[in-house]
Each structure stands twice: as C-alpha cells, then as structure tokens.
Amino acid sequence: MLSFVFPGNIDPKIAAMGADPIPYMRTPEFSAINLESEKILLDLIHCRSGKTIIYTGSGTGAMTAIVENYVSTKKKAIAINGGSFGKRWVSLCEYYNIPVVDFWTEFTKDVDYGKLEETICSERPDVLLCQHHETSSGVLYDLEKISEICHRYGVSMVVDVISSFLAEELDMDKLGIDICVTSTQKGLNILPGLSIIFLSGALVDYPFAHKGFYWDFEENLDNLRRGQTPFSPATSLYLQLHARLKQLEAQGGESFNIQQTRHHAEVFRAECVKYGWTMPSEHPSYAITAIQTADTEQRLIFRGLIDKYDTFIMPGGKPGFYRISHMGLSTDRELIELAARIHEFEPSR
Ligand SMILES: *Cc1c(COP(=O)(O)O)cnc(C)c1O
After folding, report:
1. Cα(137) to centroid(ligand 1), Å
2. Hey, is 23 helix, strand or coil?
C-alpha cells in the first residue's frame, strides 16, 4: 500500500511497535517516557518554558479542549475561516456560546492581512484562532504577519499547527503564540489517535476554565507533571510517539524532516506542471500539494488509484480537486510514478 494522506507511509519499525505486548502504564518507566516526549516536543516547536498535554483523542478533541479551557475565559474571539478547519474553530466557539467574529477567507486564497487588521481594530477581540496551514485548501498563512497584528492589539494567539508541525518552520516563542495544537497522524506521521497541546510559558499560572471533564487542562497538567494521564492512555501510541520523537531528536531536530517534506513537494510539483494540473493554493504549504484535475464527474482518479495500485490520495473541497500529502516516507521514484498514475485515470479535457 502507498499512502499520500494522513498519515502517509509510516516508518515500518514504528508501525511494527503496534504489535508489541502492551506494558502496564502506571509505572515509573512509562512516566519517564512521557516526560522525555514532552521535552522533545517543546524543543521541536521552540517553546522553552512551556508545557504540553498529550491526549488520547484526535486533533479536534484537543481543539475542543482549547476552547473549553481557554477561549471560554475570553470575551470575544476572531477565527480565520479559509476552509473546513478554520470553520471548525468558528463552529466550536458557537457550540460553547463564545462570541466569535467569522473572518471568512475565500477557499485556496491567502488571508487579506490588511483587512484582518482592520477587523481586529474595529471588533476588538481578545483571542485569535487560526490554522498555520489550512489543510483543506493547502494554503499556508503568514504567522509573522498575524503575530504582528495580534501583538499590536493585545490579542492572544491560538494556532492549529496540526498539519504544519514538522513540515514548516515554526518557532512558538518567537511568534509569541500562547497555544498550539497538533496530532500524531500529520507531521509526526505516525498512527492517528493522540493529540498534543503546547502551552506557552506565558500561561503557566493562567486561571483556566473547567468546562469539560475529559479535556480539563488543570487535571491533565497535574497528572502530566509526573508523566501520567488522568485516564487510560492509548499506551502503544504513546510509545510510538516517543520512538518517533527520539528519531527526530537523533536527526538533530525538525530541520531534516522539513527539508524532506519540501523535497517531496518539489519533486511532485515538477510533475504537476508536466501534466498541466493547476495548483490553486495561493502561498502553498509544502505539507501537501493541491491540484485541480479534469476528473470532475466521478472521482475516477481516487477510485482507480485504490483499485489498481492500492494507493491513497485525498479528494477535496470541489470536483476534480485532489490533495497529496508529502509528510509520509516516499522516494522520488514513487512520487513520479504517482503523478503518472493520476494522469492515467484522468479523463481527457
Ligand atoms: C487534520 C486536521 C484537524 C483535525 O484533526 P482530527 O485529528 O481529524 O480531529 C484539524 N486541523 C487541521 C489543520 C488538520 O489538518
């Protein structure tokens, strides 16, 4: 099987750990592993005096946790809504009755930063929610610009880096971000099932709210201080996360992974030009390539790749729009072959 979705092709050594016997988790050994995972995670995102919470639950679970524990303590939020994940911030605020300005941005377009500043100036929100990479459209937002605006108006920044962590440069302290969130099946490229919250040092004594039992920050932080979780962790996934983090540490940090992701994107994008597919994302991330094909009627490419080649890519927001993830393991040859196979199933224009 070849996978260009989330996760992509996983390192077989880490995948094989899923078949190992599962150790009991209430032990000093398991605690030591989690404390080491926290340290490496904070190094990778450049959050020096912060904390992490590692939840058993998908990325949306951790987004929910942020809204319950943090955003709900604010008066008004603004969310950049340029696709399905930005929309999710808006929906979460609405779900918890938190006033939110829906800063709608056209699909596949970058944020209008001037308009964002005007809106913040007139609406005066005290917290901004956005993605770093809006995975549904492939657009990478300029966090430096957003950070400048937020800091000018005293707006706290919460960033969903679920699909940019380890795929794009990201320095949480330098950008002055208060909270980031990621999950295991994207940049970390291991099995889905865990999500990670990064809390900046500025929030160490923050009076978080208590609005959700499972996701409660204080309860989770209390347990994590000794490397434990309040509820049953998905033990194998925590061990796989730790092994993946040790790999990244041995590679000297995130740069190697970022370069590799970029290389995959560059190799694949050269093929896209060859086959005449447009790449509609304005300011695209290297994490995925989004292409517009002529396959607008029946998803022939999607089905053909699965049935003939046991290969997965992601159909997207509109007919004929496909996304190919670059976060998994792949060789140049596999990427060139993938493009040829997409072309094979594309109906003629
Ligand atoms: C995948 C993704 C999510 C949601 O994650 P789940 O693990 O599916 O809950 C949220 N935001 C972004 C940017 C994503 O790419």
Report:
1. 13
2. coil
Is pLDDT of 83 > 90? yes
User: Residue 47's closest CA among 174, 182, 236?
Assistant: 174
Sign of torsion over alpha carbons 208, 210, 211, 213: positive
Tell me the per-residue pLDDT of 195-211, one tens digit each, with 9 for 90 and over: 999 999 999 999 999 99
Mutate to test the pocket of ligand 1, among 56, 90, 161, 163 (most ligand atoms within 8 A of CB): 163
Neighbours of 243 (CB within 10 A): 16
In Å, how far are 1, 9, 226, 304, 337 from 341, measured between CA atoms?
Answer: 14, 18, 50, 9, 6
Lining ligand 1 with CB less than 6 A are 58-60, 85, 131, 135, 160, 162-163, 183, 186
Euclidean distance between CA atoms 26 and 130, whole angstroms: 36
Ligand 1, residues 5, 67, 84, 85: which to mutate, most atoms within 8 A of Cβ? 85
Closest atom of ligand 1 to 134 CA is: 13
Exposure of 228 in the CB half-sphere (CA atoms within 13 A): 12
0.70 cut: is pTM over it? yes
User: What is the distance between the terminal CA atoms of the chain, rounded to a whole angstrom?
Assistant: 29
Using DSSP's 3-state secondary structure scheme, residue 198 falls into strand
Average pLDDT over residues 79-86: 98
Ligand 1 center to 60 CA (angstroms): 6
* Ligand 1 atom with least separation from CA of 161: 13
Query: How far apart are the C-alpha atoms of 191 and 56, rounded to whole Å?
Result: 12
d(CA 227, CA 237): 15
Using 50, 70 and 90 to split pLDDT, how confident is the model at 280? Answer: very high
User: Which residue, among 137, 167, 156, 4, has the nearest Cα to 67 in the 3D structure?
Assistant: 156
What is the atom index within ligand 1 of the atom nearest the CA of 192?
7
Within 10 A of 318 (CB to CB), how many other CB atoms are there?
A: 11
Q: How far is CA 207 from CA 24, 93, 162, 230, 271, in A?
A: 33, 19, 25, 20, 51
